[in-house]
Design a protein that fits this description.
Elements: E1 4-10, H1 22-25, H2 29-42, E2 48-49, H3 55-63, H4 68-76, E3 80-81, H5 96-112, E4 119-122, H6 132-138, E5 143-146, E6 156-160, E7 166-171, H7 189-200, E8 208-213, H8 224-230, E9 239-244, H9 246-256, E10 262-264, H10 284-310, H11 317-330, H12 333-336, H13 342-370, E11 377-382, E12 387-394, E13 397-404, E14 406-410, E15 413-416, E16 422-424, E17 427-430, E18 435-438, E19 444-446, E20 449-459, E21 468-474, E22 476-477, E23 481-486, E24 491-501, E25 504-514, E26 520-529, E27 533-540, E28 546-551, E29 554-558, H14 574-577, E30 582-583, E31 590-591, E32 595-600, E33 603-609, E34 614-617, E35 622-630, E36 642-643, E37 661-670, H15 677-687, E38 691-695, E39 703-707, E40 713-719, E41 722-728, E42 735-744, E43 750-757, E44 762-766, E45 782-784, H16 801-826, H17 832-863, H18 869-873, H19 877-903, H20 906-910
Parallel strand pairs: 1-8, 1-9, 2-3, 4-5, 5-7, 6-10
Antiparallel strand pairs: 6-7, 11-14, 11-38, 12-13, 13-15, 14-39, 16-23, 17-18, 18-19, 19-20, 20-21, 20-27, 22-24, 23-24, 24-25, 25-26, 26-37, 27-35, 28-29, 28-32, 30-36, 31-34, 32-33, 33-37, 34-35, 38-45, 40-41, 41-44, 42-43, 42-44
């Protein structure tokens, strides 16, 4: 063997809420810290990386406050490395400003404990967005460890973001646990180390191979370097072993390597590590809650709190930060992806609803301050920097609204709002932009385009992956169209739809809104009962061209299908490297934020949506958005388009989504590109329309403009008594600003002046403002005419007692299998005993998964769907015991996955190291 050096990184991947909630997993953290103190006492040079998220420390200190001094000592002594993130979110599903705040809170937490990390850690993220390099660079992070999504088998590369920012990337295509628990079986530890080096060496450009000693929810770490140092005689002379840290290894290798390949933009390929496209539509009600809360905080609450601060209201910095952190806890990848136990998602729903109501109250208070000097009347209060024109109902009238950026303006044009309740077979609407016909089945005919059909398909997947089956049919009308509103300037048409197949029932209440604008709008309240199906909304645009999709801080172009994937069966060598899950054959489901469009020359057709994230597009110009994917098992085996199981085998009836959820969508087409100012303004106006507020007493002011720009606004907030506005330019061309601004970094520190925003760039500006009002006095009440609704109804689905009985029967079968396998183990020879022990761990892990799943569903069934704080936050000791046992079995099973692979590795036997 040539000279090889193993660089061992000690870490944990802390899935705080997956098969248990943090109510249970936080109990394990004090033991982890005590173990680190023990290891550091024995080896002062020991280092341990805490999964890149300071939320783990926050959980620890909420459960055991006295541990703060221990954590501070470990961090300041260099043993424990924390940050640079607050949590490990799903970057595809989380909004851009939330992703930025995740880095902000993580850095502040890290520095508060005396740490400093300039390396990112995205080792289990289900795909990577194009703006991740720029976001990291905004916080001084110059390298990153990533897995999943990378379309090439490159161990190191330079990752170039949408704006040109570069990150040195370490690709963990062999996984983040390939040396995990190596000292737990000391008799084969050296064999494991050598086997990993041998199988990975062909893929690395230098003899320096990173190995990772860590696993999910590991709370009993080891010191592999000291272990191998004590057994140095067992290692060939050509093998070196060093301990490394993520920033240290990245810095060392980055300085050694030249001419690295450059990968550009988003990394969403499941070729070498699954990115689980099914998670984009799993539990779509969670995605709607997340969008509503993120939008309310960053696009409404903070901006209006800023305007209210100018009028004398104290700015509630700590409250906004607390809400931001709470939403980020729900944005953790296993949580927002919908792939956890029902209890986790019920806890998320509880916190979303609490934060939503608190933010509504905060906005109401801000509006009272903003309008304190205004004359009686109806006003449009806008947090959207684009100019806006629209038609909205308020106080029984239809109001014509015009705003000019961020600020408040009076509404002078209000018209009678008629509600005829007339029933019709078809409906026509014509304005200066289009002529539309609503057909009896609810489809909208717009020229050659046919829009809004609701189709139902069979679904055979799990919470991670979709497996679309045959087409079942489309929702059919339950009666004629009804005209709810009609005037010279608007119309609202509604229709009830439904369909039934055996135990499956789907219903929808569709409201179509028309006005003088270019948009056709849908509001759809979707409800269903049953599992094993998917509901898509179909837009046959009649366009052919390039598909574009909105993503955090960017708009990206994509093909309609990704077929650059590997087959189910791999060639020799690679099958031993890629031990995780992969997508196979082809993937045609992709993520989006806010819009999906098809452009052809200077013309485009676009679908806008709030809180939906899964789309498919066809060569024929069809766009399909997934509104619901109803499944009831967390993970399945033997799926057609995925290799490998993805998680515990749990029964999760909440993933059937048996509840009413309201979605809001719009369609627009015309002679414009998606990068045009016109489209950007339409999209911003749809996502963040003005608030309509009525004031019945007060002063004389009728307008208070603040500023106007033709760029999307990510944030407007107060920081150290300064107003900071964060814009981004998602287009490929520079965008001028209306004036020169002082640019700052994300912390508000001055950088210079700027009068335009470069392509694909995120920028923070200090906004000039009038002197802040300091006078005191009473506030006049205001009436908020269009407050946001809560769009998700209560869960109507409960566990099936027959399924729980089947789980218990399976437990009995597994107990018998464990006994039979233990008997075989007792008679096994030295080579066979590892395989039989592995099989026991596999069976015992599965047994405990069934046992925990049965107990969780029995508890849920007993509540009859009544979710209380006690149910969510008071730990159940039986669940705590089973969960702890399951975590230990998961650890043992994973260790033995690698041991049995080593025993069966021919290349290892060729080196003369096979056990006799």
């Amino acid at each position: 063997m040539a000279r090889l050096t193993a660089h061992i990184i000690n870490h944990t991947h802390w899935d705080r809420e997956w098969f248990l909630t943090s109510v249970y997993t936080s109990r394990w953290l004090p033991g982890l810290i005590d173990r680190l103190i023990e290891l550091a006492d024995k080896n002062p040079d020991y280092h341990y990386f805490l999964d890149g998220q300071t939320l783990v420390v926050e959980d620890l200190l909420q459960f055991a406050p006295p541990y703060q001094t221990k954590v501070e000592s470990l961090v300041q002594g260099g043993t424990l490395l924390i940050g640079p993130y607050y949590c490990q979110p799903d970057w595809r599903l989380t909004g851009g400003e939330a992703l930025l705040r995740n880095l902000l809170w993580g850095r502040l937490d890290m520095q508060r404990f005396g740490g400093e990390i300039n390396t990112g850690w995205m080792v289990d993220t289900f795909g990577h967005i194009s703006q991740a390099p720029q976001l990291h660079r905004l916080f001084g992070i110059d390298s990153n460890y990533i897995w999943r999504g990378v379309p090439q088998l490159e161990p190191y590369f330079n990752w170039q973001g949408a704006d040109g920012s570069l990150l040195f990337a370490v690709n963990l295509f062999g996984g983040y646990r390939n040396l995990y628990g190596v000292t737990h079986t000391p008799e084969v530890a050296t064999r494991r180390l050598l086997a990993e080096l041998i199988k990975l060496r062909p893929y690395y450009p230098s003899p320096d191979i990173p190995l990772f000693d860590g696993y999910d929810l590991e709370d009993n770490p080891e010191d592999p370097l000291r272990f191998f140092y004590d057994r140095r005689a067992e290692l060939p002379a050509e093998i070196g072993v060093r301990e490394a840290t993520p920033p240290g290894f990245a810095r060392e290798l980055g300085s050694m390597l030249n001419d690295l390949p450059v990968l550009t933009g988003e990394l969403m390929s499941g070729k070498y590590g699954a990115v689980f496209p099914g998670t984009l539509s799993t539990r779509s009600y969670l995605k709607r809650m997340s969008w509503d809360c993120e939008h309310l905080l960053y696009q409404v609450c903070e901006p209006l709190g800023t305007l209210a601060w100018l009028q004398g209201r104290p700015y509630p910095t700590r409250r906004y930060e607390a809400w931001s952190r709470s939403l980020l806890q729900n944005a953790v990848h296993d949580c927002i992806c919908g792939v956890s136990i029902d209890l986790v998602h019920e806890k998320m729903e509880f916190s979303y609803r609490q934060v939503f109501e608190e933010m509504r109250e905060d906005i109401q208070k801000s509006l009272e301050y903003i309008l304190r000097d205004f004359a009686p009347g109806i006003y449009a209060v806008s947090a959207n920097p684009f100019p806006y024109e629209g038609w909205h109902p308020a106080s029984g009238r239809l109001c014509h609204i015009q705003t000019h950026g961020v600020g408040a303006w009076d509404i002078s044009g209000c018209f009678p709002l008629h509600q005829p309740g007339e029933r019709v077979e078809t409906f026509r609407w014509k304005n200066t932009h289009y002529e539309a016909v609503v057909l009896p089945d609810g489809r909208v005919q717009l020229g050659e385009a046919s829009l809004g059909e609701l189709r139902v398909y069979e679904e055979g997947g799990d919470t991670y992956s979709g497996e679309t089956g045959r087409f079942l049919g489309m929702l059919q009308p339950d009666g004629p169209l009804q005209i709810e509103e009609r005037s010279e300037h608007n119309a609202v048409v509604s229709l009830a739809l439904s369909a039934n197949w055996d135990d499956l029932r789907v219903s929808a209440r569709v409201r179509l809104a028309f006005d003088p604008s270019p948009l056709v709008r849908w509001q759809i309240e979707l409800d269903s009962r049953g599992a094993g199906f998917r509901v898509d909304m179909i837009f046959e645009t009649a366009f052919r061209g390039q598909v574009s999709a909105g993503m955090p801080f960017d708009m990206v172009q994509r093909p309609v299908v990704d077929s650059n994937l590997l087959s189910r069966h791999l060639e020799d060598g690679l099958d031993g490297v890629l031990l995780g899950q992969r997508e196979i054959e082809a993937v045609d489901t992709f993520p989006f934020h806010d819009f999906v469009a098809i452009s052809n020359g200077g013309a485009s057709a676009a679908v806008l949506a709030k809180g939906l994230h899964s789309y498919q597009a066809g060569e024929d110009g069809c766009i399909a958005l997934s509104l619901r994917r109803a499944v009831e098992w967390l993970a399945k085996t033997n799926l057609e388009h995925r290799v490998g199981d993805a998680g515990p085998f749990f029964y999760v009836p909440g993933a059937r989504c048996e509840r009413a959820v309201t979605f809001e969508l719009a369609f627009v087409s015309g002679d414009f590109g998606v990068e045009s100012e016109k489209f950007q303004a339409l999209a911003a106006g749809f996502q963040n329309p003005p608030l309509l507020v009525e004031k019945r007493a007060g002063g004389t002011i009728t307008a208070r403009p603040f500023f106007q720009e033709t760029l999307p606004l990510s944030s407007l907030h107060v920081s150290n008594r300064r107003l900071l506005a964060r814009f981004f330019n998602p287009t490929s061309q520079p965008r001028p600003l209306s004036r020169s601004y002082r640019q700052t970094d994300v912390f508000g520190r001055p950088l210079g002046t700027i009068d335009s925003v470069p392509p694909k760039t995120i920028i923070t500006l200090a906004v000039p403002h009038p002197k802040r009002v300091t006078r005191r006095g009473s506030l006049e009440p205001v009436q908020w005419a269009n407050p946001p609704d809560w769009h998700v109804g209560p869960d109507q689905g409960l566990p099936d007692p027959l399924v729980i009985d089947n789980l218990k029967e399976r437990i009995l079968q597994l107990e018998r299998q464990v006994e039979e396998t233990a008997e075989k183990l007792s008679r096994a020879g030295s080579q066979e005993r590892y395989r039989w022990q592995h099989q026991i761990y596999v069976l015992q892990r599965e047994l405990l998964e069934y046992r925990l799943s049965a107990r969780l569903n029995e508890m849920k069934l007993a509540t009859q769907g009544q979710i209380t704080r006690e149910y969510l936050y008071q730990p159940d000791e039986e669940i705590a015991t089973i969960g702890r046992q399951l975590n230990q079995l998961r650890i043992k099973r994973r260790i033995y996955d690698y041991i049995v692979q080593v025993i069966g590795t021919s290349s290892f036997r060729d080196e003369g190291n096979a056990e006799s």
